Structure formats: C-alpha cells, structure tokens
Amino acid sequence: MPLKIGRGASAPPFMVMDVIAAANARQAALPPGAPKIIRMEVGQPGTGAPAGARAAAEAALRGGDALGYTEAFGRPSLRARIARHYRDWYGLDLPPARIAVTVGASGAFPLAFLAAFNPGDRVAMAAPFYPPYVNILTALGMVPEIIETGPETRFQPSIAALDRLDPLPDGLIVASPCNPAGTMLQPDELAAIATWCHTRGVRLISDEIYHGLHYDAPLATAAALSPSAIVVNSFSKYFSMTGWRIGWMVLPDDLVRPAECLAQNLFISAPHIAQVAAEAAFDCAAELDGNVAAYRRSRDLLVASLPGAGFPHLSPAEGAFYLYADVSDCANDSRDFCRRMLEQAGVAASPGLDFDRARGHRFVRFSYCGPEADMAEAAERLGRWR
Ligand SMILES: Cc1ncc(COP(=O)(O)O)c(C=O)c1O
Prior knowledge:
Elements: H1 15-29, E1 38-39, H2 51-62, H3 76-90, E2 99-102, H4 104-116, E3 122-127, H5 131-139, E4 143-148, H6 159-163, E5 171-175, H7 187-200, E6 203-207, E7 230-234, E8 247-250, H8 253-266, H9 272-281, H10 285-305, E9 322-326, H11 334-345, E10 347-348, E11 350-351, E12 363-367, H12 372-385
Parallel strand pairs: 1-10, 3-4, 3-5, 5-6, 6-7
Antiparallel strand pairs: 2-8, 7-8, 9-12, 11-12
Helix pairs in contact: 2-9, 3-9, 4-5, 4-8, 10-12
Bound molecules: pyridoxal-5'-phosphate.
Pyridoxal-5'-phosphate (PLP) binds next to α4.
C-alpha cells in the first residue's frame, strides 16, 4: 500500500542553494594556484558576528549559565533592547510585549502565516520575490497571488496594482529593501500601502530584514504606519549573524497571544546563546556601520562598472546587497547563462528563476556582500567574458 505524501513534500528547492553547491564544486575542481571563483550568488554577509556579540556569547558559555529554554518570545532583556532599537532608529515607542524573538526571519514566517491566515487564504506579493514566501505559504495550504512588477515601479507593488486585485487578497507581503532587486518603498509609498491594507482588512506583512543596509533612500517601518501590520526582521543581515538563527517580529495586538501559543508549540524558544549575542550586537554600531560602508563602496563600483561589462539593465541599487540584471538582450535561459558565467568567467550569480517563475529566465541576481576586492575583480572578469 503506497504511503501518503504531504503537500509540504512538493516544496520546490531554493535554487540558489543549488548554485552555491555548483560554485563549491567548481572551486574544489580548480587546479592549485588557479584564480578562485568569485561568489556573487550568496546573500549572506561574509563578515561574521560583530566582536561584541561574540564576546557576549563566550562570556555566557564560560559563565556556567545553563542556557536552557527561554520564554517562547525570548529573553525579556532582548525584547526590551529591540523595543529601544525602534526608539533609536524610527522614533517609535513599542511595548516589548508586542515583540517576539524568533528563529531567524525564517522562523517568523510560519508563525505569522499560521496566526494570520487559514488554508485557502490568498496572500499577494510582488514578483520578483524571496522564494520561501511562496514555498512556505504553499506548504501551509495558503495561496500565493503574484503581482508582476518591473523597473517602472522599482520592482515594488504600487497602489494601482493593488487596486486591480479582485477579489481582495487576505494578506500582502512587502519587502523594503527587497531581495532580489535591492529596491525600496519610499516612506510615503509604504504608508499608502499600509493604509490601503488596514482599511480593507488585508493583513500586511512587512519584511524589514534589510533595514540598516540602505544607502541613500530614507527608511520607514510598517510598525509605525499600521496597527494591524506584522513586521519581520532579523539579526542575519545588518547585524551579520546568519548562522546564529535569530530574528524577531513586531506583532499587532490581536496576534500576540495566538503567535505566542504557536511559538511555544513549534519552537519552544529561539537559541538562548544567540539571544545573548544578539542583545550585545546592538552595541556594535561602529563595526556594523563599517560593513555597510564597504557594501556601499562595492555597490558604487558595480553600478559604475557593470553596464560597461555588458550588464546595462540593472535595478536601482537602493538597499540590501543585490543588483537584479535584465539579461534578456543576450540570454533567454538565466540558469544556463549563470552556468556558463560560472564555468567561463569564474563568477557565481543566481538565476532569476528562483525569484520569478514567469520572467526570471531573463534576469540574474548579483550579490555584492563579498570582499570588496572580489567585486572589483568580478567586474573585470565579466567585462572580459561578455
Ligand atoms: C527577504 C528575506 N527575508 C528573510 C530571509 C531569511 O533570513 P533569516 O532566516 O536568516 O533571518 C532572507 C534571507 O536571505 C531574505 O532575503
């Protein structure tokens, strides 16, 4: 008798993980002394946790604290420190009771989706998008609804596009700065979207994981713009702590208790040692802002050099550490294009198919969070290759 397989089993791979594996294999196969593969496929800072965070973790380990479970929503001191962060960065007073510490932003999504939606509910988002939004919603029986966006709206959803949704969706996910395009919603655009959602009973989920990695555009948080929005954030990007698996949510009042019960059942708590380190990371602004300055220099270099290297159609690089390049003038299969770029130019990048199933075959995502010298070398190699 064949056994049943659940709907989660049909979640597609996160393709960039396959590109990472291909780049690793290519690097391993290179003869000694050959120029190394330049890694522009990964979306994780190469810098590691700031020194103050590592020192706090070390002290906690040596201190004999049992580092057992914390409360499901995290250590009270960390929740209070996150609340202070909202005062410092956005001038917003938030009660720590609305803050939930999570297992990365990734751990926040199932909590948010399960607290806010039912199977069959429709949740809209712009394409290109961060692939796990669609894959997690689908695994939970919810229905992603894709809004195609392009350079005319800086790959972000517009009110005009939302007005065209009929029937209204149950939820909307926005990300600013976004992955893969690295573009941002201006504060007035985010405010208009927040109001649009709140007045129509559409639950807004604002992924703010790239806050802090923004270069010129001003920053706004949906937590200040809507009483019903869920905000997702993380220590993975600006705080440079990917492997510590620690993030947070700001919850609207009506979802605090439901999300807490879910968190108790699904995760018990986020890793205790990571919570200690994360709290200390807030006091490492000088080191973290130094990382941001390096990203800014890499961004400026690539924005200036990639057009001459054969990539003239780039997304406006407003934040995060991504450039989304339209390569349709020379390729119609971004997966094959990235494979050839890896083999022939020694530069790894992600095919857009991960982020946009309908049009991603025409796009490539470059990530510039690697070492600055590598980014300069990448532009040269790509210029020679194209
Ligand atoms: C837009 C976006 N949201 C969420 C995540 C998940 O981050 P984490 O689970 O490491 O906090 C990522 C990771 O790259 C991302 O790009």
